[in-house]
Design brief:
The structure is a single chain. The chain is of the alpha+beta class. Helices cover 26% and strands 18% of the residues. The protein is built from 4 helices and 6 strands. It has helices at residues 2-22, 111-121, 161-166, 171-185; strands spanning 65-71, 80-88, 99-104, 127-132, 136-138, 156-159. Strands 1, 2, 3, 4, 5 and 6 form a 6-stranded mixed sheet that branches. The longest helix has 21 residues, at 2-22. The two termini are 55 Å apart. Mean pLDDT is 77; it is low at 1-14 and 16-21.
Length: 200
């Protein structure tokens, strides 16, 4: 059976080779040197327009509170300092653990306005937003107090972003679950409430 299969494959290959060898090639049309390739213009099928909830915060939508902190006690990425941003929606109640929306490398564009609008309308559950920036390894880990809010202005030896964000293993997942989330829950909201994130 295997011998017959091998012979069939060899015969098919030789037949295709002979057909290819005897089939005349169609010459390409002459082209001027350095001639620009003409392509049809790219036109979108339709134009995307921002909806009511995606442009800015709607009238009457309450705005929550945010805070930042630096995480410099990592055992998974030792020596790396990561800035963590946390947004607490106005509807947050510590008696009801909130859902979680986790972002990477975002500098608070209009995601918060969209989330506020959706929560206010009841289209999205109360959700705490966490934003993680790529870590930086500094030459001197004794960060001066006046630089805690802007650690990127300190002398640093290398960015840790490509190593921590793109390495194909479980380090980033463990970093979030074992270090960042507990660190966030150890803090309080700007108005003094404990932070509780749903484990479901």
């Amino acid at each position: 059976m295997h011998t017959f299969l091998r012979l069939s494959l060899v015969a098919a290959f030789l037949g295709a080779t002979q057909l290819h060898a005897t089939t005349p090639l169609t010459p390409l049309p002459p082209q001027e040197p350095n001639a620009a390739v003409k392509r049809p213009p790219l036109v979108a099928k339709d134009t995307y327009e921002k909806g009511l909830d995606t442009g800015s915060r709607n009238p009457g939508t309450p705005h929550g509170k945010s805070f930042n902190f630096n995480w410099d006690q990592s055992k998974i990425f030792p020596g790396s300092v990561s800035q963590v941003g946390v947004y607490i929606p106005a509807q947050y109640d510590p008696e009801k653990p909130a859902c979680l929306y986790f972002m990477f490398d975002i500098h608070w564009l209009n995601e918060i306005e969209v989330i506020d609008n959706l929560i206010h309308k009841g289209d999205m559950p109360v959700t705490i937003v966490i934003n993680l920036l790529g870590g930086v390894v500094y030459r001197d880990l004794k960060t001066p107090p006046e630089s805690e809010k802007e650690p990127w202005k300190l002398p640093w030896s290398r960015q840790n972003r490509s190593f921590s964000f793109t390495t194909v293993n479980d380090s980033m997942a463990r970093f979030i679950i074992e270090e960042i989330l507990p660190a966030v829950e150890s803090k309080q909201t700007p108005d003094g409430k404990p932070i509780r994130i749903s484990k479901r």
